[in-house]
Amino acid sequence: MKKFTAIDAFCGAGGLSLGLKNAGFEILFSFDSDPLCIETLKENKKYHDHKCYSLDVKDSLNDRVLKIVNLKRGDLDLLAGGPPCQGFSIQRTVGGDFDDRNLLVDDYGDLIIEVYPKFFLLENVTGIGGKRGREILEKFKKRMESHDYICHERILDAKDYGVPQRRKRYILVGERTSSDSHFCWPKANQIKVKTVRDAIAHLPPIPSDGKPHPDIPMHRADKLSDKNLERIRAISSGQAREHLPNELLAECHKLSADKIGHRNVYGRMEWDLVAPTITAKFDSFTRGKFGHPVQDRSISLLEGALLQTFPEDYVFLGNKIQAARQIGNAVPPLLAEVIGKEIIRALKNEF
């Protein structure tokens, strides 16, 4: 049986690679400009046995990627990637409309044209379709269409595909074809909804002093300050800062959440619902609804990884902040797998 080939650009900690591999792709090469992410991939040899380099996307051009994988232009089945999205993020509250990271979409377009894969995948935050990103996105799509690609775009919510987390992402699938399109979007809600309880309830409690569980190194969370301990003990599962007594509110939160937002900071997750979006700062109780449903702490690194659908034995290198960033920035492997299976189905039909 033919093995369909893929390259993962902007690979991060490997969530997209892992999901595409589970879908049936042979990952030939991954690269990212963050050396720590590449070290994380190399540490997880059980899941990643392909070449992976610390490489900026500009340095991947001039046929360098094709030489690394020993393919000719047009031979690759899938080029996938999620250019760093902070410039488009709806959580971004400072700065102008221009961000150097937005230009990475154009650089990714250069790589697509050079490699000329049968399919490409672009994953990003939903904000790329808003004021900051729409102009760049429309330019990118027109450019791809001028090089024989049909562009399929949709906002997908990971919770609709078995991920125990609300996580809306903009997905663009480019299909190289001179005739009819064969790609179809995965059908939502074909997999039983997985809850926070399903994902993390089996894990043992962890020390309250910020140290990891003695037998599970990734199962660790920061020690809470005395004030934050008071706050988390004052709320129940599913509650957040709106439910705190006035004396436990930070000064900046004493105005109504309807006026200033940040409704879900200092919050606890709910056992029998999906988690909120796991961000790069999910390890902090002050940053969102990242409190454990019943234990008086933030969720651990391992719990965040499981809510992202990484395997339980997957390792993230670096200090706690660096590991949380890798986990929160990753594409959930299960979402990548679901999309990857549809791309393989289209490849079988078209090529």
TrEMBL record:
One Pfam family linked to the record: DNA_methylase
Gene3D superfamilies associated with the record: DNA Methylase, subunit A, domain 2 (3.90.120.10), Vaccinia Virus protein VP39 (3.40.50.150)
Catalytic activity as recorded in UniProt: a 2'-deoxycytidine in DNA + S-adenosyl-L-methionine = a 5-methyl-2'-deoxycytidine in DNA + S-adenosyl-L-homocysteine + H(+)
EC supergroup of this enzyme: transferase
Keyword annotations from UniProtKB, A to Z: Methyltransferase, Restriction system, S-adenosyl-L-methionine, Transferase
SUPFAM superfamilies: S-adenosyl-L-methionine-dependent methyltransferases (SSF53335)
PANTHER family named in the record: CYTOSINE-SPECIFIC METHYLTRANSFERASE, DNA (CYTOSINE-5)-METHYLTRANSFERASE 1
Family per record: Belongs to the class I-like SAM-binding methyltransferase superfamily. C5-methyltransferase family.
Protein known as: Cytosine-specific methyltransferase
Source species of the chain: Shewanella chilikensis
Taxonomic placement: Bacteria, Pseudomonadati, Pseudomonadota, Gammaproteobacteria, Alteromonadales
